[in-house]
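Please describe our next protein:
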Amino acid sequence: MLPNVLQRSASDHVPVLADEVRDLLAVRPGETVVDGTFGAGGHSSLLAADLAGDGKLIAIDRDSSVRTYFDRFKAGTEVQARLLRGEFSIVLSQLAANDVRADAILLDLGVSSMQLDRPERGFSYAADAPLDMRMDSSAELSARELVNGADERELALTFRRYGEERYARQIARAIVRRRGERPFERTSDLVETVKHAIPTPARFGDGHPARRVFQALRIAVNDELGALEAALPAAVRMLRPGGRLAVISFHSLEDRIVKHYLREESRGCTCPPDFPICVCGHEPVLRELTRKPVRPSAREIELNPRAASAKLRAAVKV
């Protein structure tokens, strides 16, 4: 039985679905592990422990502020560790092109706790801060540029596509009207505009009224879905035969992409059903380890409410 990693102080960044990730990735000494979304290093610390001082860990993150967390992690581990800064799909593609191979790869998607817990980054609708939301602070496009520059139709499409916001059109119209008076600068400006744009009953419905709008802007600013679609095949190219891939998603759009990709790559023959024999010769690349997503336990959600929407899927390269 793996140790329960949830027995930590409330101030620690608790890695989501930690025991389940360790079970599915089944890291062994001597292997090479890639943490494609290092964040504060919670999952990396656990996977490095499974290497038992013999192996390599490659950490990837686009956020320059993770350097402090990585240095602390590296000082406390005996495995060979290096940090590569950049968007994970690009870094994984570069590693694969240079014949770097891995035995286990983890992608923990979405915004990290350390980003949410720093109000100045502008990810949270619960704190007044500059309207930013960039995971890479050197990137050109921020939420401020998007909210103040996109036309009404583009804003509505963004809120509907990435946030599944039912009042996308009303919110977009309200934003365009408000920025005609003065541009948006802070998260509180956007929160108030969203609140007044939707019907009163909806303000007291499922979660914070600005939650879906903030999610949509964050996904658009960081091109999260595009990066995920490119990262999955790059990760599989990196894996050795028998290598394992695990992905943690936090909303239905991410999970849908992961589910579809793993399922397609696990298929064998793609010939039409009425063909008497296979002529395509297609063989599966992956074998799914999780036919259905693994969800956090009630106990984990109680200790870490941010884990509530997490879904874990995994596969092995055949």
Remarks:
- The chain is about 40% helix and 15% strand.
